[in-house]
């Protein structure tokens, strides 16, 4: 049987849209100038970059000069968190974040802690929500930065970013959100979200890998991570990734026209998937918030099985999913996000994340629903974890 592969791991990365590839091609071929050069080759590249910057800025209700292009979400998180911490270190040394951030934020905060900063990792409730009151209570006269993600990459929960932003403003504390999972998937308005800084990455919205952005609100002081040339108004040295930035711009254009329809289409398919799996497979639970969640994310735990076994069995059927986040898949530690929402360790080990995209069809979801019950039952039948009588 030669079945079409089904990719349900869009939170890890998305296929580059054909429209994006087409937009990038001229900049990989003839239009190769360095955007900093003064001659015509350079000016042509610069025009392309500034066109993309303008479109991306208006998509998020920012000003073009507030966008710094980077190599992706990880760099943006590092740049913003370290850059704000360094620029404000005379005012204080305290940073507030959540316990369910992406590793790019958690590890950066952990690094700063070793450098003498103090970091509060706030708990979340069983749906994965940070309580804005906890943020307020954690603020001290030493607090210089709050960083709380917009949409969680594992369980899909969307955090109360605007509420946290109001609190940060009242206290004169800089506020950053990692919007890598929401950018291009749900509406983003930096004023409504009340953020000073925001991270996004092109490859999570059908753009190319290796390009992202750091939004830095006008007036927010930040120390650069990369020193060298005076690109990006001296906030990030290095020759601009012209094809990548052009591709990012095209991906944002597509999101601008398709996002609304796609999010309702994908969330309907996602709901069908979650409801079907719950109905067909007993001892199953959904992780993350029932309503406040990314439109394309389903995260479920199946008792008495290992996520790796499920993943590999699905892979043999041509279906690609994740056991949690791509970064934790190779370790035996249960996901820090599932632990933080109180999923017991055994159950956390039997968790799968399905993330849909613009190429996901109804038929794809129906095929997953046809094969999953058999896979779970077969693995449970072999599993020493399965208690007799607990499973029909
Ligand atoms: C993917 C991801 C990142 C990292 O982005 P890269 O561009 O892959 O470096 C950061 N934060 C979140 C929430 C992500 O999902």
How are the SSEs placed, and which strands pair?
Blueprint: E1 6-7, H1 18-28, H2 40-59, E2 67-70, H3 73-87, E3 94-98, H4 103-114, E4 118-122, H5 132-138, E5 143-147, H6 161-170, E6 174-178, E7 197-201, E8 212-216, H7 242-280, E9 284-286, E10 297-302, H8 307-316, E11 319-320, H9 336-340, H10 345-348, E12 351-355, H11 362-382
Parallel strand pairs: 1-11, 3-4, 3-5, 5-6, 6-7
Antiparallel strand pairs: 2-8, 7-8, 9-10, 10-12
The chain binds pyridoxal-5'-phosphate.
What Rg is obtained from the alpha carbons, in whole angstroms?
22 Å
By CATH, the architecture of the largest domain is named 3-Layer(aba) Sandwich
> Tell me about the biggest sheet?
7 strands, mixed
Total beta strands = 12
Number of helices: 11
Q: Given the C-alpha coordinates, what overall shape results?
A: globular
Bound molecules: pyridoxal-5'-phosphate
Low-confidence spans: none
Beta-strand content bin: 5-15%
**Which strand order do you get reading across the main beta sheet?**
2-8-7-6-5-3-4
Helical content band: 25-40%
Within CATH, the superfamily of the largest domain carries the name Type I PLP-dependent aspartate aminotransferase-like (Major domain)
CATH top level of the largest domain is Alpha Beta
* End-to-end distance: 31 Å
- The helix-and-strand class reads alpha/beta
Number of domains: 2
Mean pLDDT: 95
Order of helices and strands: EHHEHEHEHEHEEEHEEHEHHEH
If you consult CATH, what is the topology of the largest domain? Answer: Aspartate Aminotransferase, domain 2
